[in-house]
Amino acid sequence: MNENKVIVKTAENREKLFIALYKSVFPAVAKYLSKMGGTFDEAKDIFQDALVAWYEKAASDGFVLRSDEKAYLFGISKNLWLKKHRHNTQYVPLDGFDAESEDHGQVSDSKILNFLKTAGKKCMDLLRSFYYDELPLNDIAETYGFSGVRSATVQKYKCLEKVRETVKQKALTYEDFLA
Amino acid sequence: MRTSLLETEQIEAHLMQSAEPGDALVFEARLLLDPDLKDKMFWQQKTYSIIRQYSREQLRGEIEAAHQKLFNDRQHIGFRQKIARLFSKK
Question: What element of type H or E holds A64?
Fold first, then answer.
């Protein structure tokens, strides 16, 4: 099977990738969902969720893509649609949140996230590259301008430690507030 | 690396189960004796979950930006019309 590696180092790389995937797979997904009675907005939501699921899987595989990748992405979209409709017959989740996710833990998580999005963006982006995008160390060093792999690793732990302290401090503050 | 960073690295190895068997035993013994270390481990685990949530949100934003480009930029008009036709028959 043919294999190739996609480049996802920067936001520009990823935009190109998503536009390419939209162009090659979304028409088939939209056609299928339209036939199943779905609307454009539903097709958009389903496809975007499928892209997230696909990306997370691809990241854990080192972004080495196989030639049946498009069929795989189409399959995820189809499954998400079927799952959604099975659920709709039982209950309609409110804006994608179920009862469990509305507990206090989630409330403080979203407050912490909002804080980190502004106050800790630099570190959060670096940590994303390590843990979510799972980029190779030398790519991270190059993208963020570190002198090498070792310096990138040290910076990762510095950021992790800094964010850990912020998470602790903020979580405890919000708990006090809710108590 | 300074001592606290080495400790952060060891906590990570423990949580991700990537430590060498010998190091893992030493770390587990330290966990029993050092409540501060246990506390740091708790918050570090929470931090990984926050990083995941943050990253997913960022990724969703990037996907939405690509969508907006495709459905608003003049250069993609052919694609847009192709999709619109699929939903216009209802």
Answer: strand A64-66
The structure's pTM equals 0.88
Chain A residues within 8 A of B64 when measuring between CB atoms: 48
Shortest alpha-carbon distance between residue A86 and chain B (Å): 23
Q: How far apart are CA A97 and CA A95, in angstroms?
A: 6
Closest partner residue to A18 (CB to CB) among B49, B58, B63 is B63
Instruction: Read off the pLDDT of residues B18-64 as tens digits, 9 standing for 90 and up.
Output: 999 999 999 999 999 999 999 999 999 999 999 999 999 999 999 99
| ipTM confidence score | 0.91
Measured on CA atoms in the order A14, A20, A21, A23, is the torsion positive or negative?
positive
Alpha carbon distance A164, A175 (integer Å): 16
Q: In what helix (H) or strand (E) does residue B21 lie, and over which residues does it extend?
A: helix B21-33
Distance of CA B14 to the CA centre of its chain: 18
Helix (H, G, I), strand (E, B) or coil at A97: strand
Instruction: Give per-residue pLDDT as tens, A156-179.
Output: 999 999 999 999 999 888 776 665
For residue A5, give the H/E element and its range. Answer: strand A3-5
